[in-house]
Every structure is written in C-alpha cells, then in structure tokens.
Amino acid sequence: MKHIAIIGGGISGLSAAFTIEEKRQSGTDVRYVLFESGPRLGGVLVTDRVDDCLVEAGPDSFLTEKPWAADLCRKLGLGDQLIGSNDSERKTYIVAKGKLRVMPDGLMFMVPTKIMPTVLSPLFSLRTKLRMAAEWFYPPRVHPPNQAPEDETVADLVKRHYGPEMVEMLADPLLSGVYGGEASQLSVRAVLPRFADMEKKHGSLGRAMLDSRKKMGAVANVPARPLFTSLRDGMQQMVDALVARLDANSLKTSSLVQSVIRQNDSWIVSAGYQSDQFDAVIVATPAHVASTVLQSADENLSRELGEIAYSSSVTVTIGYDDKVRRSLPPGFGFLVPRSEGHRMLAATFVHNKFPHRAPDNRALVRCFLGGARDEQILDSSEEEILQIVRAELRQIISLNAEPLFARVYKWKASMAQYSVGHLERLQRIESLRQKLPGLALAGNGYNGIGVPDCVRSGAEAAGRILGEMGMWSAA
User: Fold this and answer.
1) How far lies 307's CA from each of 274, 286, 428, in Å?
2) pLDDT at 30 over 90
3) Residue 26, number of CB atoms within 10 A of its CB
4) What integer pLDDT is reported at residue 215 of this predicted model?
5) Per-residue pLDDT tens for 376-391?
6) Domain that holds residue 112
7) Spacing of C-alpha 235 from chain mean position
C-alpha cells in the first residue's frame, strides 16, 4: 500500500486527490490524505445565494478554450450543468476621461483585427491609430541563431507594436483584471506566449491573429463557442461534486502543515502536534506557502518558490432593483485604466453575462479592487471598501441607488505574478524538484492561474507521482 500526502485543499489539491481516488476505486493499492489549513475545501471557489441571486466570491467562470475544468465537470457528472456566457450581450467598455467607451469590434484581447472600428473609436488618439495601421506591416522579429529570445514585459512588446497608449488603455486594464498585475511587470513568454510566437513568425500581431482566426473558422466550420463557461449553480458546484467523490476519511480540514521533510525513502509531514509518514507528497498550495512548507526539505527549492510573487484581490458584489437594471448599460461590464485615478479595476454586470444568476427584477454588479499596486486595500474594513466602490460607481456610471445587498470578499496573496524570468525560474524549480523523489508541485504559481490550469496542474502532479510508483502509464 502506497500513501500520498496532498497539501492544500483548493481546486488543484482536490483535482490531485480525485485523480488518485479514481485509481484507488479501480483497485490500485494506494491511499491519500489531503491536508487543508482552513475550515473548508475549495479555496477561492465559493458561491453564496443572496436574495435569489448567485454571488461568486472568487472566479465566476473559466475560459471555454481551456478544456480541463469542463472535462473534469463531465467526469463528475456535471456535464448538463455547464453553461456558457451570454455572448450575444458581450460588450466591454473602457473608462476614458470619465466616460464609458466601447471596446472596438475586432479586438482580440488587445490586438486589433479590424481597422475601421478601431479608426472610428474615440478610445484612441490619432497617433495610436496610425501606429495600429502601420503595425500590419511589422516584419517578423529575428533573433540570433541558436539563441532563445530574451524575456520581456508585456508592456515592452505592446509598446513596440502599438505605442504606450495601448498599454495604458488596454494591456494594463486587461492584465489587472486577469492577473491582478501590471503590464510593465508581467512576462510575455509566461503570460502571453502566443504573442511572442506570433511576432517571431508573422511580425504583425494583427495579421497573425486574423490568420489564426480564419484557420480556426475554416477547420471548425461550427458556430463560435461562448467565451466563458461556468456551472448553473455556481463555481462551488464543482468543489461540492469533487468532495462528494473523495474518501471523507482522507480529508483533513483545519490541519495546517508546518513542514515536509525527506527522510530515507519516505516523507515526514508535520501538521499540528502530529507527524505522519508518506511515500510521496503533492504540495498544492500557493508558491509562497510551498516555500515555507519545504524549507526543511531543500533550502534552494524553498528560496526559488518564495521568489514567485503574488498579489491580493477584493471582490464586491452589489445587488440592486429592477430600476437600476434598466438604467445600466448593456454588455458585460467595464475596465478602468490606472490613469483614471480610481481604485476599482473593473466591474461586471453579472445579470448580462450570466442572466440566470439574477432574477429579472435584479441587477447584480461585481467589482474588483486590489492587485499589485493596491495591496493596502486589504487593510480597509468591509464598510470602507463598500464606500469606495459605491462612490466610484456614482462617478463612473452615475449609479446612486441604495443597494438591496452587498457582499465583500478579500483574497490575500491569491494571484500569482509571472514576472520576467518566470520560465527560467520554473526550470530551476523543476531541476531541484527532480532531486527529491516523491515530490510534486501543483497550483497557480507555475503554468497558469485560471481554474482549468489549476485542474490540469493537480491532475498532472498526481499522475507524475503515480507514475513514479509504477501505478500510471502514458496509455
């Protein structure tokens, strides 16, 4: 009988546990214990019901094009619960000089693929529009033979193609919304590897993106899928289904692991006043937590893990009546550039993005704060945060009505920041990990921060450990 410890009960740890549980159910002689420091499992996937509305405390959905979360849901019997975003209403605004400006049609992430909507947009200056037009003739970027391209920030790449205004108005707000980070700090190769590849092969990002879209349309020849996917009863539905499929006796909540030590051919996991021996360990926590847990096992590995930065976030969901719903703009919501001087990073009109999450007589507005530049927001009380959000909603969209309800959620050091040199750091981490048989790492600190990435990370970590034990084959 082989025993595996899983440290961390977020979606990465639960995915690892489910992968091992499937093997156990099929007759493989393996057991696991999952340690979670908090009182509940699921990490940031928390769904509340308030006034007949579904309120997401953390992620409200995941990108449809990344299959791992949806595949897991189908394995769990939740295939019929998967729903897509209401893309017929998909319109995003950028706050520019205090007004909402529609993001031009044809923008794919931050790359213009249609010239006229961008040229006619009041969002950009004439100088930037001319840069966008000229970008279509940008030549492929040549690097010296047998030399990997140097890493750079997203801001560097975007400035080279479109100028600084594109960074300020699009790249920075978009990355703040996804990563809670800054374009001037995040690595292109780690965050937007497709962009680096497109520049190398095609030169122009616009031409490369348009060519890619045409090829996908020609191959698929089917209607476009919704951009986002979620679950009918909220993201916690995935957590609840996972936990129900695991061995209840193997799940230990409110169990803080202080250290993990390699001893002979086994691992000693110390949690509270108790130490247990395992054949292998999967550390599925944020990298800074993994750094602390593994300090006694390998100081160099601990140091590298500790160098992966994290930012904090705050989500605020406010419910309003039917009058407010009718007064709000159509679309999914808006992004707020830093230059506008607000603390809010973005807001989502949930009743438009996922209509079933609010009754027809309710408006549901979800606001985001924090990020790399505003860690101090976590020191504010919920009342102070709500005051900030309401004041800024008044300024941005003239929303003065009294809320029917409000919920504030704080997530400290929850979003990994893939800074320049991240991929090289991952190589060093992997090299050090390989010297410690029976150790695997999972979580959002390595190869993707979204829910699908975390699901994949946990499953692959479990597969790696089972493979080392001779219990897993590529087939």
Assistant:
1) 29, 12, 12
2) yes
3) 7
4) 66
5) 999 999 999 999 999 9
6) 106-220
7) 13
Euclidean distance between CA atoms 157 and 177, whole angstroms: 19
> Is 301:432 a contact under the CB 8 Å cutoff?
yes
Cα 18 to Cα 269: distance, rounded to the nearest angstrom: 21
Q: How many Å apart are CA 449 and CA 45, to the nearest integer? A: 13
Of the residues 220, 249, 271, which one is the last residue of a structural domain?
A: 220
pLDDT tier at 273, thresholds 50, 70, 90: confident
Joined together, the tokens standing for residue 241 give 């289904």
Question: 453 phi and psi, to 5 degrees?
Answer: -60, -40
Q: How far apart are CA 275 and CA 325, in angstroms?
A: 55
- Asked if the structure places residue 282 within a domain, the reply is yes
Q: Which residues contact 73 (CB under 8 A, 6 or more apart)?
A: 79, 81, 82, 231, 238, 241
Q: Which has the closest alpha carbon to 226: 70, 107, 112, 362?
A: 70
- Asked if residue 312 lies in contact with residue 415, where contact means CB atoms within 8 angstroms, the answer is yes
pLDDT tens, position by position, 83-122: 999 988 889 999 999 999 999 887 877 888 887 888 888 9
What percent of the chain is predicted at pLDDT more than 70? 96
pLDDT of residue 106: 79
> Does the structure show a pLDDT above 60 at 217?
no
Q: Hey, how many other C-beta atoms are within 10 angstroms of the C-beta on 192?
A: 22
Residue 30's domain is classified under what CATH number? 3.50.50.60
Residue with tokens 């890493």: 151
Q: What residues does 230 pair with on adjacent strands?
A: 83
3-state secondary structure of 213: helix
Same domain, 209 and 124: yes
- Say how many C-beta atoms besides its own lie within 10 A of residue 355's C-beta: 15
Between CA 15 and CA 457 the distance in angstroms is: 8
Q: What is the pLDDT, as a whole number, of residue 473?
A: 64
Q: What is the DSSP letter of 168?
A: I
132 and 172 share one domain: yes
Task: Find the CATH number of the domain harbouring 324.
Answer: 3.90.660.20
pLDDT in tens, 340-377: 999 999 999 999 999 999 999 999 999 999 998 899 99
The residues with which 228 forms a beta bridge, in sequence order, are 63
Tell me what pLDDT residue 253 has: 96
For CA atoms 386, 392, 393, 394, give the dihedral sign.
Answer: positive
Q: Please indicate, yes or no, whether residues 295 and 201 belong to a single structural domain of this protein.
A: no
